[in-house]
Structure formats: structure tokens, C-alpha cells
TrEMBL record:
It comes from Calidifontibacter indicus. This is Uncharacterized protein (AIM24 family). Gene3D superfamilies: Mitochondrial biogenesis AIM24 (3.60.160.10). InterPro entries: AIM24, AIM24_sf, Trp_RNA-bd_attenuator-like_dom. Pfam families: AIM24.
Amino acid sequence: MSNILNPGVLQGNDNIPGNEYAYYLTLDHPWFMSKGAMIAYYGQASFNALRAGISANLQQMVAGTFSAPMYQQDFVVVEGQGTLIIGDRGYSINSYDLDDGNLTVRAANLLAFEPGIQLNQSIVPGFLTLIGTGKFLASSNGPVMFAEPPLRVDPDALVGWADCPSPSLHYDQNWVNSFMAAGASMVGINSGEERQYDFTGQGTVLIQSSEKVIHDHHIVRNIEQQLPNVSAGGLTALQARISAMQQQNR
């Protein structure tokens, strides 16, 4: 066997040698980590949920970092001495450095970030905005491409964007009106050919090299928050639509 792991070869913060699907962090300071991302660790580590009862120091750090309470249950604070190894269902993992920056990332892709970064809830459902200075880790389905606006991106391929305005939705009317698209719409199929995110202005767009989106329960939670504002008729219409889609997926 080759490339046997031990603490001596895992110094600093980087991908596991020869493995883009796992990343290691030196626990010389706390990290915010997505629940379930830890796959192994050397040394001593504690994993603290972001809730009442944590130490005063952690409470102060959480209060200064989280401006997205809907996502607070999805993260823990990792403390200790040693090396933490994280992964995400076999997806590629990359590290990014913010220097007084502003970057929005899909919530399901965000794996870990340093306390120097503030986490805010984006106005785009299912995305989080990171502001400040520090390192964060994000997963992707395949390597990430960095592109300049103006461009349009398949929503399922979008990982995030930095230093540019939030995107608007663009619909290809020719595709929507076509016979094929009309048939697809009837069975609940949406594609990037029909609907895209439209980016303008300056900045960078992060795109994964696949249209397969990572399962995103945050969208469901966002919809649930909106349900109290929906009328009885609207709830009935939603229930009918959900039932129809469930029947199609069986």
C-alpha cells in the first residue's frame, strides 16, 4: 500500500496528497464546519453545536459570525489540537481565500470556514454570502471553472459568485414555447436551456463542470418559511403540484 496517512505528512491545510475528494485542516484555531463533513481526525477535537449552552467565548464568536439563523443548525464549531480530515460524498473539494472579500456560495457546497468570515443569508434561495478575510472550503461536482460576466449559467451548474451583483433569472422564450419544452414542462422537467442565471457587471462566477446539483435541503427549508404567507388557495395549488410530481417520480 502507498500513501499511508499519518500526522507527519499532513501539515498545514491542503487536499490529501493525490486525492481531490478529501481535505485536511490543522486545528490550531477554531473552524466552522458543516455537519457530517468530518470523516476522520488525528489528535483531540470537539464538535460544538451552535446553540444555547455553549461557552461564552463560542457564543460571542457565533454572534459575530452568523447572520443566517436559518442555517445555524447546519454547522458546528470544531476546536482542538490535531488534524481534521473532511469530505463530501466523493465530490471535489477546493479551498478559497477571501481578502476583505464578498463571495456567495451554494449552501449545500459550503463545508467549512474560518471565524474571520461573516456568514449572511443571500437573497437568492439556497445560497450564503461570505464577507471578510479568511479561508473557506467548498465542494463541487467536478473541477470548478472561474468565468467573467456577462454570461448565463445553468442553475444546476452554479457554485457561486464573487464581487458581482446577484444574478437575475433569464428564460429562453423560444425554448419555453417549443413543443419539446412544453412536453417536458408537463412532467416537471426544467433544464438550463429553458432557465438560466444571468450575470452582469464585474466579478467572477464559479461554475462546476456538471449539471448535477448537490442535494439541497436548504431550498425546502426556505419554502417552508414562506408557507405562513401563502393563502389557502395557494396551499391547495401547491399540494396538487407536489402530488403530481410525486406520482411522476414513482
